[in-house]
Amino acid sequence: MTYEYDEELELLKRKKLLEYQRRLQEEERRRQLELQKETLLRRILTPEARARLSNLKLVRPDLARIIEEQLIALAQTGRIRTPVTDRELKQLLLQIYEQTHRETRIRIREK
Questions:
Q1: pLDDT tens, position by position, for the chain (111 residues)?
Q2: The whole model's pTM is what?
Q3: Which fold has domain 2-100?
Q4: Which of 45, 93, 94, 98 could make an SS bond with 49 (beta carbons 3.0 to 4.6 A apart)?
């Protein structure tokens, strides 16, 4: 009985260890990707534009992530002039805002 218990315990320990190692590897891979993204953005954006993007990330992290991905893709394909200035980033943000913003109108009809 003790022998079976020990084998089961060892098997559970191995499974837990493998799961822990897998999670550590995933986390390290995420950190590496984030570091690569930050390095690319450092080359693509001026310091003022990076500051604006950081502020945007605090308020709208989802939008900031989309902008970062677009900027990296545009820079890698050569479709955008680098470094992107703060003014150019504001124009890009304004274009995205105009494309995604829906104006809400409320009409009150009197009977």
A1: 567 778 899 999 999 999 999 999 999 999 999 999 999 999 999 999 999 999 999 999 998 998 999 899 999 998 888 899 999 999 988 888 888 777 777 888 887
A2: 0.68
A3: Helicase, Ruva Protein; domain 3 (1.10.8)
A4: 45
